[in-house]
Amino acid sequence: MSSVPASASERPDFRDPALNLHKRVDDLLSRLTPDERIAMLHQYVPAVPRLGIAAFRTGSEALHGVSWMGVATVFPQAVGLGATWDEALVHRVAEAISVELRACHRHRPPVTGSGANSLQAWAPVLNPLRDPRWGRNEEGYSEDPVHTARLGEAFCKGLAGDHPAYLRAAPVLKHFLAYNNEDDRCTTSSGLRPRVLHEYDLAAFRPVVASGAATGAMAAYNLVNGRPCHVSPLIETELRRWAQPTGHELFVVSDAEAPSNLVDPQHYFDDHAESHAAALKAGIDSFTDHWEDSATPIDRLREARERGLIDQADVDRAVRRHLELRFRLGEFDPELDPYAGIGPEAIDCPEHRALARHAATESVVLLKNDALLPLNPARTPRTAVIGPLADTLCEDWYSGTMPYRVTVADGLAAALRAHDGEVVRVEGADRIALRLRTTGELLGGTAFDVTDWGRGVLTLRAADTGRYVSLKDDATVIADQEVLKTWEIHETFRLETAGDGTVLLRSVLTGRYAAVDPADGKVALTADDPDSAERFERELLLDGVAEARAAAEAADAAVVVLGNHPLIHGRETEDRADIHLPESQEELLRTVAAARPETALVVMSSYPYAVDWADEHLPAVVWTSHGGQESGHALAAVLLGEAEPAGRLPQTWYRGDDPLPVPLDYDIITAGWTYQYHPTAPRYPFGHGLSYTDFAHRDLRLSRSSIDQDGSVDVTVTLANIGARSGSEVVQLYVRALDARHEAPRLRLADFRKVRLAPGESREVTFRLPAEQLAHWSVATSAFTVDPGGYEIIVARSADHPVLSAPLTVTGTAPAPRDVVERRTPAVDFDDYADATLVDATRADGDAVTPTDPARPATLLFRDADLSGAVRIEAETAREDTGPGEARLVLETVDQVVAELDVPVTGDRYAWTTVAADLAALPEGVHDLRLTLHGDFRLAAFRFCGPGRTG
């Protein structure tokens, strides 16, 4: 909603659109009282009636459609949009979402609180998809930072619109920073050494912020190097520094309840006034905390002000950013707002339906095809569509409410009807009855269709209504839910064997068992242990696998649709335990394939699965994300050849026997994450996707064979469609450093372009490749650097399918040895390490290193260190208490111990002292230097001193 304008004669400066934006902000800020200003630091901002300023709230969810505001167009999940590799399409999708958000802002009542639905869109998510087990994998675009940034920038620009003064919506980037695990997410620390920080995690955010496309960012729940993201110095030193040239400051919001987390459960500060003050000073402008109860967080900030922890300037900085955003959204200029006329008819309009269908179609990835696809309706008039996702569509937590649902079975039935074809729908679920042993009655008075989602987790749907059994607040169960869409899922259960041929019904949510109340005979899930639980006779009324087998035998082809429900297992607050399909789904697939060899597997999922058996035994495998309301039409078009499979994988699909790194190892280099560093061949590589036509890549040319360290080269390749159908190919350009002095990626995506060609058509594709695309983060100089030497420029169909390559030489001065004498060297700037953990040097800034296990020494390697002239070593250490064992720092070259330093107790992990010693040996020249940390202490930095300094 707009704020009430004043008449022209009495109009204050902030109401004058002819004035400079910053002058208007300053004028309005000057008119606000200190209490009115500090009240603007909460998500729910009260109105200021005396100035005609309306209430305001931050944050609407708009990841792949407007969420939580009722019916809206639902596009493919973000990982599905990532699979399109199509920036123009992603831009159009975001534009449609922002149009519908505008309509909801003006024409729908707020879901919660006062004030209109917010035009600040909390999207996109730019966290690279490092680990496919991440519960929120569906929210990101790609495992690659370049790919992520390109699509993220397109999405932001689509949300914001192209008006020079006013935003259609205000995109907020999530989640800063290194957020890629759900289990214990509020207390786990992501260890980022500088190379990983700058080359991977920051690299996904940097281009989007620098382009000016983003208006804000959201801090992440986790910690980085032991420090909560909500008090990270990177908010100012990186995010806001990148934004400075754009002329607009980023408006940074907290994640929900994260400011309170700083005290409990993170225990990083002693009290909330201190923690809120630290977050504000670190750059958090809006506190999403205590939901609509603004009094609690605002009172904490007032206390911080009274205690001198913050001053008015700290408050004003945040309020200024807040006000600038509201001006840019047109709130104070309703008569000039170019988007004010968007009406409710824009929601789920025909144009957006068509776009949803197109986006879903473009996101489909053909993983394998041995001539089964496209299906020929004349040869396969009867198609069995089988599986738990064959005739249903799922919403995730950030989905809108679908206005309609076209399932895979629906889509194929509609398409085959024109060819007099037939679709047989079989879920493959067992139908059972659960009869109470105590009373002999049926639970719920009906039979249930049981879907097994893996790891013993089931959903039960009433056979007569199709509705899910749901656990109620009084612990009773009723089959009354049409969809699963709540923060806590009340509809998942386990059927546990009791040992006497009966089963126990147990809630996944509460862990309690079903029991019968002897007073009234009602069933409620109140029993704490199996001994007091009700026994049920489980009667199999219909064998789902047998039904699927019969349907497959009677069909000409089978399409088996397997995958996940986005709110069961991997989801926000819960990571996946592994990458395997549920055993019941594997059994169903193998049974169908044995009965009908002409079987195509469609994986509809939020993340990759290990589909090894399917790849080795089936003629066709297809992947789509949960693609929204038009999923069925999109998949039918691809399966029947009415559309080309144009998607390419945005992340690696690993093999089932591949031992993936531990989830909390964020060091992609040493852990071997993503296509850049993973040593084992995947099942399907990053960028993979097949077509129904054939493409040839020819005539790779570089405009020059060598460039200097700040130069660029044009890379040109000819792409030809040599098949009989039109089709799309993603031309992927990778780079590889040859004989690198650092541990370089196997290869790294530098650029890409999606090209559509008619049969026989060819096109030259040219990429401008600046030398900075060859850069790595130098820990010796704390800056990006391009080393002179040889590089390989690769054109590929995927990360594991190069088709053309050419050499490129970078000329320039070779890097000098690392200067460590009379220069402070941060301990985190190592080249390699073992058994070390990165931690915070202070609560405000700085990093340090400590042994992961004090009983096991940590080692840090600093290559090519020039020790010439060194006679003494100084080290910055902190040691909380004496603890068990020694605390000692040892410095060595390859062949000798240079120095040993005993580390004293300082009494606190943030109490630092400098320990020093003369060198036991005086090594001259350049050496690889190894530091070994024995015992429980922290090392922040070290410095070698020349003969002019003494202790």
Question: Which terms summarize this structure?
Answer:
951 residues; alpha+beta; six-stranded mixed sheet; 47 strands; 21% helix; 27% strand; globular
What does this structure look like?
Helix 6 (194-210) runs parallel beside helix 7 and helix 14 packs parallel to helix 15 (583-595). It is built from 19 helices and 47 strands. The radius of gyration is 30 Å and the shape is globular. The chain is α+β, with helices and mostly antiparallel strands and 951 residues long. The strands form 14 sheets. A six-stranded mixed beta sheet has the order 10-25-24-23-11-12, with helices on both faces. Strands 36, 38, 41, 43, 44 and 46 form a six-stranded mixed beta sheet that branches.
Strand numbers in spatial order across the main sheet: 10-25-24-23-11-12
Number of strands: 47
Unreliable stretches: none
Give the end-to-end Cα distance, rounded to a whole number of Å.
66 Å
Relative strand content: 25-35%
Largest sheet: 6 strands, mixed
